[in-house]
Amino acid sequence: MNIAVCVKQIPDPATPYELDDANHWVIRPEDQVLDDTDRSGVEIALQLAEATDGTVTLYSMGPSGSLQGVRQALAMGADEAVIVEDEGLKGSDALTTARILAAAIQQKGFDLVVAGTESTDGYTGVMPQMMSEFLDVPCLSFARKVDAGDGQVTIERQTSTGYDVVAAPIPALVTVTAGIEPRYPTFKGIMQAKSKPVTTMTAADLGVSQDATQVIRSVEPVPAREAGEIVEDDGEAYQKIVALLEDRKVI
Amino acid sequence: MGIWVFAEEISGAPSPGSLELVSKARDFGDVSVFYVGAGSDEAWAALGDHGATAVSHLDTGSTLPSGPAAAALAELVGDASVVLFGMGNTDRDVAGRLAAKLGKPVVANVLDLSVDGAVSVKSEILGGTKAVTTEITTDGPAIVVTRPKAFTASPSGGTAPAVTTVASPDSGRAGAAAITEQHSEDSDGPSLEAADVVVSGGRGLGGAEKFEMMDELAALLGGAVGGTRAVVDAGWVPYSYQVGQTGKTVKPSVYIACGVSGAMQHLVGMKGSNTIIAINKDPEAPIFSVSDLGIVGDLHEVVPQLIEALKARA
Q1: Which of A241, A242, A246 should be substituted to probe chain B, the one whose Cβ sees the most B Cβ atoms within 10 Å?
Q2: What's residue A215's pLDDT?
Q3: CATH architecture for segment(s) A2-206
Q4: Which of A131, A167, A235 sits opposite B178 (nearest CB)?
Q5: Which fold has domain B197-313?
Q6: Residue B301: which residues within 8 A CB-CB, separation 6 or more?
Q7: What's A121's DSSP letter?
Q8: Residue A137 has pLDDT above 90, yes or no
Q9: Residue ranges covered by each domain of chain B
Q10: Is B233 close to A178, i.e. CB distance below 8 A?
Q11: What pLDDT sits at residue A212?
């Protein structure tokens, strides 16, 4: 089974994000990391590829920079990566991103596409669904468990009250939650990742252009909550909680 | 023109989020609802009572709704100004597919909108630290995905809406996913979204069994138990407990966070709580920056003491 996995390089979430003044876009440093929420997708893809003697290809859009994030996914065991990088794609919304990634994936072909449910930095949370429409495949979303075989993919889909078992014939697209524990790269994997093929493409190579469909009018800081009282527990701190619960009339 | 609201049926009724959206949509004119589920007179009455004037009803049976629902909606919403969705998983599935079908952008995490000729939305980005105003510059329906509880469900006393049954369209491969089993993992006590007190556990609890302590504390306060994405991903509690960007949004009177570090994705779902109390052993934990009362200490000592003190009062 040939599996396409969408991954995103993002600024380290442990650092504060800055927006540029002109366009209000997130400023992206040279060294970006693999979005943590993508690790589960890479893991699922590797497991399915191992079980079916298949391949795992990573697809990513955005400034490649030092490729640190993509190399992290290659080090886990993915075979190769395709990156669409284009000055003209800066500030793209989810719709353009979906068009680009779908076009890149289509070009090479696939049995299954795997993506996270949303990125940590942008979190529009609808890009994979858009991609499934462009690829004309069913979207089995919010999977906490994925099985594939005999031309079919089956998932456990999270719902607001529990979960559903959902099945579809392949080709299909699956979005995965972080419930699947990703593997750590081995030293060998990290070494091999340095020489794995990384192909770079532009929007023109894919025949996709960006439409400006929304304009950001303003960006303002949200007023922070007023800082409260912080106390070190001296064995009696629970009484402060009791007092506050009384004050708020919940007891 | 007009405004559409997507409503998924949950436990036999319109999702709570859809009633919030219908209530808000009344500000902009006649409200049409696209309803996915089995449907019932009670469901129509609830939608009408919140201001829906028309309902288009699609029952996808055992087919996963996103494919057929997006195909049917695309036929209906051509001249609408806005199509409103909540953050539910099916909401997001249908919104994404619909947007791709129509070639329209999606704006997500929306907290407020205005429809005054142009559609303009307010949202918060970067974990709720920055407020952004965005104007949609394309013609045709703006596809807007809103945060739960951005608006308040308020009955208008409207009568039952006109209900039209929508024939399931042939959505081809997009509609090829089938639901083969359904499992419910409902918990006892008040629902997380409606509870006046929420007791929430994070990684700092140390293990699934420690949620018994959360249950006990919540029961004493008449509250509900929630958790972070980390504990849901670890399998300690079901997804229905998850509070945060990808889970539920709660705004209780009191939110008690136990062993919760306060990752951006969690804060988005609870920082609207009236009073926030946090217990964490790491004095640098971001949760303290939004807390009214922060206890730097071992929750395994503080919480049992609190439980005993509350029991002594009962």
Answers
A1: A241
A2: 80
A3: 3-Layer(aba) Sandwich (3.40)
A4: A167
A5: Rossmann fold (3.40.50)
A6: A233, A235
A7: S
A8: yes
A9: 3-175, 197-313
A10: yes
A11: 67
Average pLDDT over residues B207-234: 94
> Nearest Cα to B277, choosing from A223, A243, A224, A235?
A243
For the domain B3-175, what is the CATH code? 3.40.50.620
Q: Do B239 and A168 touch (CB under 8 A)?
A: no
Beta strands A198-201 and A172-176, pairing class? unpaired
CB contact under 8 A, A250 and B129: no
Asked whether residue A66 carries a pLDDT value surpassing 70, the answer given is yes
- The answer to whether the CB atoms of A142 and B301 lie below 8 A apart is no
Q: Is the dihedral of CA B26, B28, B30, B32 positive or negative?
A: negative
**Chain B, window 206-225: residues with a beta carbon less than 8 angstroms from a chain A beta carbon:** 221-222
Closest residue to A161, CB basis, from B131, B240, B275:
B240
Q: Which H/E stretch holds residue A36?
A: helix A36-52
| ipTM of predicted complex | 0.91
Whole-model pTM: value is 0.88
Q: Where are the domains of chain A?
A: 2-206
Q: Which residues 84-143 of chain B have a CB within 8 Å of chain A?
A: 87-89, 92-97, 99-101, 103-109, 120, 124-126, 128-138
Number of helices (H), then strands (E), belonging to chain A: the values are 7, 13
Reference B192, options B173, B215, B166; nearest CA is B215
| A chain contacts of residue B197, beta-carbon cutoff 8 Å | 250
B117, pLDDT greater than 70? yes
Q: What is the DSSP string of B178-247?
A: EEEEEEE---SSS-TTT-SEEEEE-GGG-SGGGHHHHHHHHHHTT-EEEE-HHHHHTTSS-GGGBBSTTS
pLDDT above 80: residue B185 = no
A chain contacts of residue B275, beta-carbon cutoff 8 Å? 244, 248
**Exposed, middle or buried, A29 (CB in 10 Å: 0-12/13-18/19+)?**
middle
